[in-house]
Amino acid sequence: MAVVTRDDCVARDRADPLAPLRERFRLPTNTVYLDGNSLGALTFSAERRVQEIMSKQWGHDLIRSWSDSGWLDYPARLGDRIAPLLGAARGEVLVCDSTSVDLFKLAAAVTLQRGHRRKIVTELGNFPTDLYILRGLARLAPDLEVVAVPRERVATAIDQDTLLIVLTHVHYRTAEMYDLREMTERAHSAGARIIWDFSHSTGAVPIDLSGANVDFAVGCTYKYLNGGPGAPGFLYVRRDLQAALEPVLSGWLGDARPFEFLDDYQPAAGIDRHRCGTPPILAYAALDGALDVFDEVDLAQIRRKSIELMQLFIDLIEALPNAGSLQLVSPREPDRRGSHLSFTHASAGSVMQRLIERGVIGDFRAPDLLRFGFTPLYLRFVDVWDAVQVLSEELA
Ligand SMILES: Cc1ncc(COP(=O)(O)O)c(C=O)c1O
User: Fold this and answer.
1) Residue 322 pLDDT class (50, 70, 90 cuts)
2) Which of 127, 132, 223, 339 to mutate to test the pocket of ligand 1 (most atoms within 8 A of CB)?
3) By three-state DSSP, how is residue 132 classified?
4) What is the reported pLDDT for 1?
5) Is the CB of residue 233 below 6 angstroms from any atom belonging to ligand 1?
6) How far, rounded to the nearest angstrom, does the alpha carbon of residue 58 sit from its chain's CA centroid?
7) Residue partners of 348: CB distance under 8 A and separation at least 6
8) Which amino acids are annotated catalytic?
9) Residue 98's Cα: distance from chain center in Å?
10) Cβ(123) to ligand 1 under 6 A?
């Protein structure tokens, strides 16, 4: 393979239709940020939106803003902004609480409908919160069994006793991506429901929830959506399942008539019933501003560039004289992975520490994983080249 030079990368950046969008982000100088899969970068529009809300809506209009500035509707409004990125329709997505809490809410509501079914099937080695939440739920419903199996056994663990399958679309360590349609069909053919966790997919990989006939989903907004540290999660409930799904965390703002302050809870009509308490408006403002950049691109473009950036990274690394100390654990085929790459290395922790000291920010996952995220809205081809240069020096 021909050697790729830094100038080649500069030329690719010049030809890149997404390149101008980097200007929308406040990025530190002398840094190559390869951790937007963990915490996305700050957009100027998020900064402005938070500032506006602080100074005018909170600072001046005070409590009137709940109605006059639409604070009360923020969870559903932001849900509708995210819906196109998920292939969902308006009224099917709600931004609220955290991903962990949203997963509990949906799994608990499905548990209320369990009939004779007793199993929740999930994957061992997934991001731990999903398993912890399900096991916590099983303590409340001791007749439930959480069947957690290695990835390769998930499909065969699903049977006629399965109530629910909970899977993460893109794996947080390896970036391995499930076939959404195939696993959803598998769940449905056993008469079970499925909740997908899209934390590592949303804003990075095109998703077609409606096309795949997905039942339920949750996900993070602080990764590829750049919503900010601790930004609220989202949940999705397919329209035809909404009326029958009764919330267990039945907070007052999920009630049909919250301002009548009645003693009897009656769930709101649509997705709003999954609201719980008062939404953190400043966090919503940051996410709202961050989503502006997605109005100007389509996910196919983002995905295309993500694949190109990752291929460049792999090619450059594999051309290094000391490439043998790194082992790619993410799938080589782009269609089988999300937007990050992981490599094992015997001294991964100290290598990552040195990379970070030199301004190349990825992350380390114990015991031996170097993880690098690729965020096409603000990452350049030349950044990838520079990062590999630093990595090469540190490996040497
Ligand atoms: C698959 C997955 N689910 C959930 C979360 C986090 O959930 P929460 O926002 O509740 O901390 C993460 C965080 O990285 C994750 O990778």
Assistant:
1) confident
2) 127
3) helix
4) 53
5) yes
6) 29
7) 364, 367, 368, 369, 370
8) 127, 197, 222-223, 371
9) 11
10) no
